[in-house]
Structure formats: structure tokens, C-alpha cells
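Quick one:
INPUT:
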């Protein structure tokens, strides 16, 4: 089950990134060009939040069954000094929880705004900050903290 969840988590990150980039692009375009907030803008916002929450659920599930995290938690004094163990045991989950909170808050704030420009502005700002946090907290192949492949395949 662990490898299946890990593969799904790796795959869904691309959907999270793509949906965030599309949402951010449309939000900045709508905000800066004073466009009307349409039903499709609302739908994209909701899809982005849904994909992010799906990723969060899989990530939390992975966190609780991960042998890396288990080792980190049971050997905290030694593990805290090892970059890769600390990254997965503490840093990755903390930053991703912050990013998911920002996405959720941004979507909720945008939903409650009365005028279209403010809806776009809220989405653009909150989602941009979340994207930055997510991008810096993914274990990319080029990451100085730890690296994982860009794509995992089901085994």
C-alpha cells in the first residue's frame, strides 16, 4: 500500500501544480484586466482546492505509514540532524500544511468577496504564496534537501 500511495502522491503533485498555475494565471488576468468573474473561474477555483485537498489526504495517509517518518519519530534526537529524515519527518509536512491552509483560505476569502476584481485579487495573492511554498517544499531531483524522481511508476 505504501508504494501505491507514494506513486499516487507523486502523480497528483503535477495536477496540483498545473491547477494552481492555471488558477493563478486566470486570477492575475482577471484582476489586472478587470474581467468579470465567471462560472468557469469559480469552477477552476473549486477544482484547484479539490485536487489540493485530495493530495493532502494522500499525503497525511503516507505520513502515518511511512517507514522514513516512523524512523524519524522514533529516533528524533539523531534524525533531526539528518537532512533527508528531517525533511520528510518535519519540514515537508509542515510547509505543505501551511500551503494547503493558504489555498483553502484563499478560496474561501475569494468566494465571500462581493466584487469580481477582489475575487481575482484574493485568489491571485493567496494561491501565489501557496505555490511558492509548495514549489520549495517538493523533493525535486535538484533539491538541496533531498531528491526524488520527477515521476514514479506503479510497481
Amino acid at each position: 500500500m505504501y508504494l501505491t500511495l507514494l506513486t499516487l502522491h507523486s502523480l497528483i503533485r503535477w495536477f496540483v501544480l498545473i491547477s494552481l498555475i492555471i488558477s493563478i494565471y486566470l486570477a492575475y488576468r482577471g484582476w489586472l484586466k478587470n474581467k468579470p468573474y465567471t462560472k468557469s473561474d469559480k469552477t477552476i477555483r473549486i477544482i484547484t482546492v479539490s485536487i489540493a485537498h485530495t493530495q493532502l489526504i494522500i499525503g497525511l495517509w503516507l505520513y502515518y505509514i511511512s517507514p522514513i517518518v516512523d524512523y524519524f519519530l522514533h529516533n528524533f534526537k539523531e534524525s533531526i540532524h539528518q537532512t533527508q529524515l528531517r525533511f520528510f519527518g518535519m519540514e515537508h509536512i509542515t510547509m505543505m500544511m501551511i500551503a494547503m491552509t493558504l489555498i483553502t483560505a484563499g478560496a474561501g476569502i475569494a468566494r465571500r468577496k462581493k466584487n469580481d476584481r477582489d475575487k481575482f485579487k484574493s485568489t491571485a495573492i493567496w494561491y501565489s504564496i501557496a505555490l511558492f511554498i509548495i514549489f520549495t517544499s517538493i523533493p525535486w531531483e535538484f533539491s538541496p534537501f533531498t531528491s526524488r524522481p520527477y515521476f514514479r511508476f506503479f510497481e
